[in-house]
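Weekend entry, working from home. Most of the wet-lab plans are on hold until the incubator is repaired, so I used the time to fold the two sequences that have been sitting in the queue since the last round of cloning. Logging both here for the record. First:
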Amino acid sequence: MKHFALVLMVTAAFAAEGYHVLNKIKIGGTGGWDYVTADGANHRLYVSHGTSIAIVDTDTGSVVGGVSELHGVHGIAIAAELNKGFISNGQSSTVTVFDLSTFAKTAEIPAGQNPDAICYEPKTERVFTFNGRSGDSTAIDAKSNAVLATFPLGGKPEFCVAPGDGKLYDNLEDKSELVEIDAAKPEVTRTAKLDPCDGPSGLAIDTKDGVLFSVCGNKMMAVTDIKQMKVIATPAIGQGPDAAGYDPGAGLAFSSNGRDGTLTLVKQVNGKWQPVETVTTESGARTMAVDTKTHKVYLLTAEFGPMPEAKAGQRVRPPVLPDTFHVLVVGK
């Protein structure tokens, strides 16, 4: 009887999430995309889109503004207390600063080569770009827009997180490593191997339990204990992950898997991090943001044309159909 009760408890934990696609928000236009940033406090979504960002009101599901004439947008960092946003431009190796009230551009700041991820660290009031081509990070004073330093990371950076305690964390994709950064110094203070994770990209954090979630190219999520800087679990995820997310209210970690068009939900069950639900999304929905206020997940994708024929050794992607770019909204 005890064994049967335990089976019922575990089954209930696995079946109780109930996430699914709620609706779509059309953005349209042409061009690719990368990061999306959720600002739950102000009910906004900042969506990268080629040479612009679209700003979405998450209450109404409508585009309420944007920032244009950018140069290969990657990420958007929000410093709400300063009323400033920061956009990383991969093509021009710069950061565009904009006003959160008017959406007007206010400054252009040089960074390292091909800045990709970008994070605001609130304790030091600094913005950090993670520069893919030069393998370093540029620290910027968010108040004055002054460049403070560019320092080496030891590899090719991917997603970053800033928990608010003066530290940042970033995945090194080519080394399958995780770095911890002291924002005040600024410099790398610790580096950890993520084996058996291969090619970590997306990164999220659970500050309560002190763990980081790295999504990996070999269909696993590496869960790292921050104190030990050691991988403690590797739950299975889908194929082609890019972004990771965490919702402390729901106790769920997320992996957006663009190649197989799924969203994997990972949860701590009986003391172990493991997959508890797989949501069918759409092909190409590889980047996402989690709104911790509404417990919704926002994923970016579009409709695609037929896959072109590839020559030997050539990597090809299906073309994005014009005016089909949209945001998928996932929740309960």
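Second, folded right after the first finished:
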Amino acid sequence: MTKFLQVVCVALGVLVMVGTGNAQKPCGAITTVALKDSQVLAGSARGELLLSKAGLLEGSDLCSGPEQWKVATSALPALTNVSATESAFWLLGHQEGIYKYRVDEKLYEANLAPESPQAVLDLIEVRNGNSDTVQRLLAVGTRGLFLQSENSGDSWEARDLYIDPEWEEPDDYNLYAILQLRSGRFLAAGESGVIYWSDDGVEWERETVGGGATWFGAVEVSGGVLLHGFGGALAYKAADDDEWLLKQSPSGNSLYTAAVLENDAVILAGAKGELLEWKASDELVTLQSGTSAAITDLAAPDDQLLMATDEGLKSVSFQDLAD
């Protein structure tokens, strides 16, 4: 079982109409959540897009009723992820679908190739020094999908990430995450322990970490990189170190997602409501999520943690996490 099967397949059957509407109770499984400018955007397994009406939400169960949400349906054949960048919310999906969610609550089609079996799983804006203008975007996905845009997402070009001739069938592998570090370097993570490094987002070098571990995501912490994945696998490399520190969650539950807090601590979440804190000292602390449902995505506004779960969108305060 991979993150793709766990998170994405529950979203099959998404409606293809664009528009707004009212829901009796926008609950059910929430597969993804993102935060931008104090607004919360979540995606449900029923194909709904839930945009908070008045900024951040309060309460422990954030799917308590339609009065909290502006509800729309996704134009994507299947929604895999909601990503927030400096410029916009982005909706990612099957068939190489990448949509921009605009302030007028309509969906803007950036690229859609209906004949493609590939799905987009993660997207970033490329930072160029101190420039406030961001035009370049990178996206990764299933079967080795790697896309690049040089015009703020209006059009996309497929790129070949794979430079190692020993990897004979790269289309059989998924890339789950892409990250740009504060140093400017790029990292893409995927299956079979494979990650890719790049100094410019154009030329890439392959590295295998943790044997055959499947890496679902990567975050930057204390200038280093923390990978998390299937079976609770973890790998950390400090900024000034060439070696990876390999660890595993105490329970062995898969860790699907992570959020970096202001104090540089990392919250990791996954199967069966697993919630852990990775501290700068490389210590793992078990936290109380308040749910036994799989946690598939996180967002960390102010003093609370938003959790996309099989039982809806839930919240827990940082103060209550360790209780």
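Plan for Monday: verify the second prediction. Confidence is low (pLDDT under 50) at residues 1-24.
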